Amino acid sequence: MTDLKRRSVLANAAAGAVALGATAAVKAAEFGNPDRPLQGAINSSAVANAEPGPKNALLRDQLPSFTNPPPTDVGGMAIPWASFNLAHKRIQNGGWAREVTTKAFPISKDIAGVNMRLGPGGVRELHWHQQAEWAIMVSGEVRITTIDSLGRAEVADVKTGDLWYFPPGLPHSLQGLGADGGEFVLAFDNGAAGEFNTLMVSEWLAHTPPDILAQNFGIPADKFKNIPLEQLWIYQGAPAGPLAAAQAYSASSAGRPDHPFIFRTGAMAPTLRQPGGEVKIIDTRNFPISKTVAAALVTLRPGGLREMHWHPDADEWQYFIQGKGSMTVFNAGPAAQTVDFNPGDVGYVEKNLGHYVKNTGSTDLVFLELFKSDHFSEVTLSQWLANTPRQLVKEHLQVDDATLDVIHKLKDRRDVLA
């Protein structure tokens, strides 16, 4: 169903440039401009297509495909774009967070995202969620702590590029390390979940009768008289001590958890490396504990293409880390919409909708694909056509035999994700 060894997910940049030139050459011809009435600025006068009214030029210029979409865009669909850059920050002594959930991004039903920073010694207080938490470090270093349902502890330091995953209900905390602290992106496996409504230890104890606390811990009730009356959420703590000492103090007689809660992405060889870029796939096959979130970390070279494809098992949530790109999403109707992405932006593609991503900048484009699933899967357009009887493809596309020969060569690929 999916192939990551040969041409598959990353198309050749030079071929894309040739196709772009061909489209521009035909201009008002039907190819590349297919709908009636014809759409796109290519069919309009400069005066008719002007925008003399009020505008936010800074925002407009970041999203040129909204203002001047390609003539192949058609119809309407839920906008598959949001951005942490436009999300409101909650700032406290020790760090900050901002989130993109269904409140501001209704299409994102399966996954909600949070961007958080903890300064040196900054602590995200002891808490837990009703949802699973998947995360990637984007800058600096953070210490994570958690226990599993058998009381087995995990204390680990994670740095840029590393991942962690906490299953629903497992308690945990985070603390910024070193001179700079750390920044990371969290993903919850429910689009309505948020960072500002978690279950926190300070609030629970504050809302428990003192006699119950005394009976629960076997400690006189007045020992708890200084419990904070408001949630800590993020606070400035003392610098974290040596990792080995923290691990020794937290160690359980039951040993370590069966599976690590962290994944060192930097130590992983790419699942696929091609001239157009590379992809790393992280799911339960190499990160067993991550049972509800599968990921692909994609790097596209300038001009590279994440080829035309769709995902049959789950919606796709995207986070753009570096570079500039554009994506076109295709739906029944027909409907097609092109959107632009910059660092800090978020994309979303519903299950089974066709799409591709193009690097439109001069540097590498790096982005995440996340799925509410235990495995990564996709269907590519090229492989589908390559494995369909020749006459059917010829009748559908009305192409010559030489073109069919090229398409057919794509069929003999080994599926490394099977």
What is this structure's SSE topology?
Elements (H helix, E strand, L loop, with lengths): L9 E2 L1 H14 L30 H6 L1 H4 L13 E3 L6 E3 L2 E6 L11 E7 L3 E7 L4 E15 L5 E7 L3 E4 L5 E5 L5 E7 L10 E2 H6 L3 H8 L16 E3 L6 H8 L11 E2 L8 E3 L2 E6 L11 E7 L4 E6 L5 E7 L2 E7 L3 E7 L3 E5 L4 E6 L5 E7 L7 E2 H6 L3 H8 L3 H8 L10
Antiparallel strand pairs: 1-18, 2-22, 3-4, 4-5, 5-11, 6-10, 6-12, 6-13, 7-8, 7-9, 7-10, 7-11, 9-14, 15-16, 16-17, 17-24, 18-23, 18-25, 19-22, 19-24, 20-21, 20-23
Write a short abstract of this structure.
By secondary structure, this protein is of the alpha+beta class. It has helices spanning about 15-25, 55-60, 65, 200-205, 210-215, 245-250, 380-385, 390-395, 400-410, and strands spanning about 10, 80-85, 90, 95-100, 110-120, 120-130, 135-145, 155-160, 165, 170-175, 180-190, 200, 235, 260-265, 270-275, 275-280, 295-300, 305-310, 315-320, 325-330, 335-340, 345-350, 355-360, 365-370, 380. InterPro entries: Bicupin_oxalate_deCO2ase/Oxase, Cupin_1, GPI/OXD, RmlC-like_jellyroll, RmlC_Cupin_sf, TAT_signal.
